[in-house]
């Protein structure tokens, strides 16, 4: 299965052990061959938790860690066709690595093409991305058996979330006021979440998980699908549209569209607590990922998740400020 690591490290693997990355690539080559693909003719697609190659009529996605993808495959097969997820051709587990092979779909990764889109196209893309996700919400009654109440950036319990809070406190050297605010927001989310309407969220409603071909044609990668308040997806959608790659606020038509969508769909009673808490949990997970990078560069305070997290603790509420008024 394994292959020797090459001299060129793919940017997506720069923080991974070269032998591990080479092993995953070797496994991907074996799986691709089973479905008529040749990895050298396929391109590496965006994504961090899994390694994905696309080409030769297929897409091969391999989990970096020992993850069984059977639940995700079952969910995808139960999705309404209107979601646009590519057809799954096969799935399995090899040497502890789950994998899924799906049909290649015409289009470009929305995250990659985003800089080339006009403001009008970006706004339309945000609405279309939400429309695809909303199809999933409407189908929640039939999809519920395939998803858990935690996953992705949503911890299983307040205790797990508090552990992440403690790690953030240690890494960021937060003030007493910031620490108090962080605990308050996380606890507020866990109080409100059980009493809010429970829908099937995509769990990672990011630009990189959609395909664009003049319009959004597919919603991809349901590995973090989770049953919970819709604010889970709304918080990520707003972040994607309102925050730059560097973690700076962006004033744009796309951001305005995301805020409009969130205002319309937030829980009328608990929405503010839920979306603020979900945004905090999102950044806590990203912070944990960055902290795991031994070679992460720069001051911790300058890392994107750290900047976003401290902004969310500000009185205005960072990138979700328009939703807290």
Q: What about the largest sheet?
A: 5 strands, antiparallel
CATH superfamily of the largest domain: Aminoglycoside phosphotransferase (APH), C-terminal lobe
The name of the CATH architecture of the largest domain is Alpha-Beta Complex
CATH topology label of the largest domain: Aminoglycoside 3'-phosphotransferase, Chain: A, domain 2
Keyword list:
325 residues; alpha+beta; Phosphorylase Kinase, domain 1; Aminoglycoside 3'-phosphotransferase, Chain: A, domain 2; 2 domains; 5-stranded antiparallel β-sheet; 11 helices; 43% helix; disordered N terminus; Kinase-like_dom_sf; AGP_Transferase; Phosphotransferase family protein
Describe this structure in words.
The protein is an alpha+beta fold. It folds into two domains: 93 residues, Phosphorylase Kinase, domain 1 (2-Layer Sandwich), CATH 3.30.200; 216 residues, Aminoglycoside 3'-phosphotransferase, Chain: A, domain 2 (Alpha-Beta Complex), CATH 3.90.1200.10. 43% of the residues lie in helices and 13% in strands. It is built from eleven helices and ten strands. The strands form three sheets. Strands 1-2-3-5-4 form a five-stranded antiparallel β-sheet, with helices on both faces. Strands 6-8-9 form a three-stranded antiparallel β-sheet. Helix 6 packs across helix 10, helix 7 packs across helix 10 and helix 8 packs across helix 10. The chain is globular, with a radius of gyration of 19 Å. It starts with 17 loop residues before the first helix and ends in a 13-residue tail after the last helix. The relative contact order is 0.12. InterPro entries: AGP_Transferase, Aminoglycoside_PTrfase, Kinase-like_dom_sf. It holds the Pfam family APH. This is Phosphotransferase family protein.
């Amino acid at each position: 299965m394994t292959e020797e690591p090459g001299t060129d490290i793919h940017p997506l693997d720069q923080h991974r052990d070269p032998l591990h990355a080479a092993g995953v690539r070797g496994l991907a080559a074996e799986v691709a061959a089973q479905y008529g693909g040749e990895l050298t003719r396929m391109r590496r697609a965006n994504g961090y938790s899994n390694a994905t190659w696309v080409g030769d009529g297929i897409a091969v996605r391999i989990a970096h860690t020992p993850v069984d993808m059977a639940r995700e495959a079952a969910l995808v097969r139960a999705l309404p066709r209107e979601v646009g997820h590519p057809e799954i051709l096969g799935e399995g587990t090899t040497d502890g690595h789950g994998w899924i092979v799906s049909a290649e779909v015409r289009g470009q990764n929305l995250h990659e093409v985003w800089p080339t889109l006009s403001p009008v196209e970006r706004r339309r893309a945000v609405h279309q991305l939400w429309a695809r996700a909303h199809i999933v919400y409407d189908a929640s009654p039939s999809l519920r058996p395939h998803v858990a109440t935690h996953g992705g950036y949503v911890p299983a319990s307040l205790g797990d979330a508090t552990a992440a809070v403690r790690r953030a406190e240690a890494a960021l050297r937060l003030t007493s006021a910031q620490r108090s605010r962080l605990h308050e927001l996380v606890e507020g989310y866990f109080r409100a979440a059980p009493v809010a309407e429970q829908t099937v969220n995509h769990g990672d409603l990011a630009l990189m998980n959609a395909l664009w071909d003049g319009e959004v044609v597919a919603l991809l990668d349901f590995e973090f699908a989770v049953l919970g308040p819709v604010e889970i997806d709304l918080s990520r959608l707003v972040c994607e549209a309102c925050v730059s790659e560097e973690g700076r606020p962006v004033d744009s038509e796309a951001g305005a569209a995301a805020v409009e969508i969130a205002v319309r769909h937030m829980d009328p009673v608990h929405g503010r607590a839920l979306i603020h808490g979900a945004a905090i949990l999102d950044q806590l997970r990203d912070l944990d990922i960055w902290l795991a990078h031994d070679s992460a560069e720069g001051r911790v305070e300058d890392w994107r998740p750290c900047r976003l997290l401290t902004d969310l603790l500000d009185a205005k509420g960072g990138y979700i400020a328009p939703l807290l008024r």
